[in-house]
Every structure is written in C-alpha cells, then in structure tokens.
Write a structure and sequence with these properties.
alpha+beta; 3-stranded antiparallel β-sheet; 8 strands; about 30% helix; globular
Length: about 325
C-alpha cells in the first residue's frame, strides 16, 4: 500500500512538472531585402546606376543576426556618401535615415545591442534602430556594452526609436511601411549628437565587408586561390565564372541542417544563409529572386547575393565559363 502511494505521489510530481510553463526563445526575422528596396529605386532614379544594387545588398545584409553592432550604421554611412555624390538626393537620404532605424534580426528574442560609435555623416546623428515588438525588453544579447544608444540616457518606451516614438516595430515588419518622417521624435529621446570631430575613428570599424560606392562588388565576397588570380583581365574573369559555377553546384546540395563553419556564407534552399553557432540561419530573398554566387567583374573573386536566375546565368556566361 505504501509503495503504491509513493508511486502515485511521484506520478503527480511528474505531471506537475510537465505542465509547468516553459520559457522558450524565438527567432525574430524579416525579409531583409525589403528594407532597402525603396532606397535602391530612389538611387536608380537619382542616376546611381550600377552603384545602387551592390550597396543596397551590403546594407540589408547588415540586418542579419550575425552582424556586429555598428554594421548597420556603417552601411547607412555608405548610403549617405553615395547620395551626396548624386546632388545630395533628399529621397535617398530620407530612406537611409529610416533604414538605419530598422530593427535587426534577433536570433534569441533578446533586444539587439546599439552601436556605440558616432556615425560619419551628420544626417545620421542621434538615430538608432528600433527593436521588434516580440523582443524580451528586460534583456539584451551580446556582451552588454550596447544596452543604450550612444548619447541616450534612456529609451522610452522600450524598443522605440526616433522615427517611431510610440513603441517597437511589429515583428517582421519594415519601418519604411509604417513611417515617412525619419526624425519624428528628434530631440525627445536623443541627446545632443556628438561633434563631427569624434566620428572618424568610430566609423572606420567594419566587420561586414562594405564596398565603396564606386565598387561593383557585393557582400560575402570570396577571394580566389592564389593559383587562379591572374593579372590579365580575361584570365581572372574566366576563373571567376568557373568559381561561381562550382559554388552554385555546392550550394545546390546544402540544406538547413548541413554542417557549417562560424561566419560562413552560402545559399541554402534559395535563400542567403550565414552560419551562426554551427547552424545556417537562412534569410529568404525578395520575391522573384534567388540566392546565387556571381563572378566579380573588375577583380578576381565571387560574391554571394540575391539576384534572378537569368542574371546569374548571363553574368557567368559573359565570363566564357561553362558548366
């Protein structure tokens, strides 16, 4: 009888533990290509031509969870730099100011830390990213060195930003669909911006490769092996095409569960993937595009980016490489 009673008590405890609520973390993501789509169109309208798409891609890739705290701001500085070469196009500048406040992907549902360096361009002073509404507003990810925006004593309400002072952005939503004025809250939660003399050192640190506006390259640039780096244009372009074919063949066999090396970039199931914690984190490309390896045009190497299948095939065919 005593034995049966003990078994009953143990069974009840197991049921109680099983029924207890379990705190689960969730990944908060977005279609990152949508964050710079309008900016790219404004850039093309302003005459940016081939400079627009590579920089647009560099910028939206900075929203991935693997990015460093200042990658988004560094990319925005590049966008402002380009706008200034195009008669300081006001629409490009406005959209850049909104982009730099777009929430970044949160792999663990914690708040994403803020950049602690001042921007290069005064147009970005006092601007910082919103958080997604599903974030845990009691905690930040990372080393806890970016829990407040530069020069700000408090963010109220939590998750808000100058463009959206009423609160965080709904999960997965683009800020550019919610607001038009990038500085709706200027002067409320933002302290006086640092002087321009303090910006130079902070704005040069970049962990995600950011191409200059004049460069045709994109993020996730792969440098060729020494044996393939020819000094003659025709030589490296052909090799770039062959390398792109080889990479795309490799990507076709990858899945979300494939093993990977920390920081590795790839295309998985048609989306752009970065290896975070030994697992591919996949961000789907914008509608009508796929992730692909492309040959660089002006120097040895390849890039991994979102494009159309037709563009991928045309670029590879132009190098003379065949499968």
């Amino acid at each position: 009888m005593a034995k049966n009673y003990i078994l009953f008590v143990l069974s009840a405890l197991v049921i109680a533990v099983s029924a207890a609520p379990v705190q689960l973390s969730k990944r908060i993501a977005q279609t990152i290509a949508d964050s710079t789509h309008d900016w790219e169109q404004a850039c093309l309208a302003a005459g940016g031509a081939q400079q627009c798409n590579p920089l647009s891609q560099t910028a939206f890739m900075s929203l991935l969870a693997a990015g460093k705290n200042c990658d988004q701001q560094n990319a925005a500085d590049q966008m402002i730099d380009l706008a200034k070469t195009l008669n300081s196009d006001s629409e490009m500048i406005r959209l850049t100011q909104i982009f730099v406040q777009q929430p970044r992907n949160a792999p663990d549902s914690l708040q994403v830390p803020y950049c602690q360096s001042a921007p290069k361009n005064a147009e970005l002073n006092g601007l910082f990213h919103c958080q997604f509404a599903g974030s845990n507003f009691a905690k930040f990810s990372g080393d806890q060195t970016g829990n407040l925006p530069l020069g700000v004593s408090a963010v109220s309400p939590p998750g808000s930003c100058p463009a959206k002072p009423d609160g965080p952005v709904p999960d997965g939503v683009q800020l550019n669909t919610l607001v038009h004025d990038p500085t709706a809250n200027s002067g409320t939660a933002v302290a006086s911006p640092p002087s321009s003399s303090s910006t130079a050192a902070g704005s040069t640190s970049q962990s995600v490769p950011v191409s200059s506006p004049a460069s045709p390259t994109t993020v996730a640039v792969s440098q060729p092996s020494p044996s393939s780096a020819s000094t003659q244009t025709g030589g490296f372009q052909l090799q770039n095409g062959k390398d792109a074919i080889a990479l795309n063949d490799k990507f076709s066999s990858l899945t979300a569960s494939s093993p990977c090396t920390e920081g590795e970039d790839a295309c998985v199931n048609g989306g752009f993937a970065q290896c975070v914690g030994g697992t591919f984190v996949i961000t789907q490309c914008a509608g009508g595009t796929i992730c692909a390896a492309l040959p660089l045009v002006n120097k040895p190497g390849t890039s991994i980016t979102c494009t159309t299948a037709a563009d991928r095939d045309a670029r590879i065919a132009a190098t003379g490489a065949t499968a």
